[in-house]
Amino acid sequence: MSDFRLWSYLASGPLLWLWVTLLAYWIGDALFRASGRRPWANPVLIAVALIAVGLQATGTRYETYFDGAQFVHFLLGPATVCLALPLQANLARVRRAALPVAAALLAGSVTAIVTALGVASLLGAGPDTLAALAPKSATAPVAIGIAEGLGGDPTLTAVLVLLTGMIGAVVVTPLLNALGFTDWRARGLAIGVAAHGIGTARAFQVHETAGAFASLGMGLNAVLTALIAPMILRLF
Amino acid sequence: MPSFLVPALLLIFGCQLAGEVMARGAGLPVPGPVLGLVFLLLAITLSERLRDMVRPVAQGILVHLSLLFVPAGVGVVAHLGLFAAQGAVLALALVVSTVAAIVVGALTFTVVARWTGNRDE
Asked: What pTM was estimated for this model as a whole?
């Protein structure tokens, strides 16, 4: 088999791109650890950048890449289901703080969707972009599902979700310190609602209580965003 | 392969399947996996045995949650034109919205907790 035939065989099958996805993520995660887990060294963003450059360099189409990567992508559904575990572990604590949790969840979730759609539509973004933007504060598997239902492009939503998480993780600690918030439950819940898993991972680094309430905020906002994002989008 | 792997996957995929059937069947706006999350939450709240069985598998999946975003994230290559044209708009929308949501969420929690005399532990 010539080099070219070997390449076209591998490049068109799923195995190579599945392996490349794992490799790129592994490199991204190693760099993230080496940076001392700085939020700007996000392993997903590094992996996406590496693969994107690789696809451009080899002239490979996204559809061909996705044929292999879909085996990883598929696990988003079961992973969403598994979020029931951290939620259940904090259930008793949540019940004691039910009122503030419910109020902050609703206020944070509505604010995230309305301000994102408001700014983008004022600056002239089209309806497809708005549909992809609406669920960006929800955790990626859920946001992707919501965007598909709204007629937004799921791949655009995935990128917007990642960027939201990184922005949240970078700004949350200096922002809330400057404003003088000291309740770790409030700080955790706010970042979980606004910036899902990446914000939650950041909260766990700062304080355990903040982390627990962040995973709660992320889980509850996944459900709430699915319910309210379609309604709010209709207003724009 | 540990012996709990198959029943744990059966439960996780079963919840997702039930969620998909219910979401599509009833035409609900909620994604199937989110309903699946609610079903699994009910199951592990009601049964400690199910919780212990599913925990190691669920933790294994959740530890590498970010890996699962990569394939969809690479889809950015299909949107380079959009980002070139509207990158500034999208960036501004994301920054404003994320900062506002964090502040409003933390403020609301603090105010309502003070009103209701709610403290941790």
From this structure: 0.81
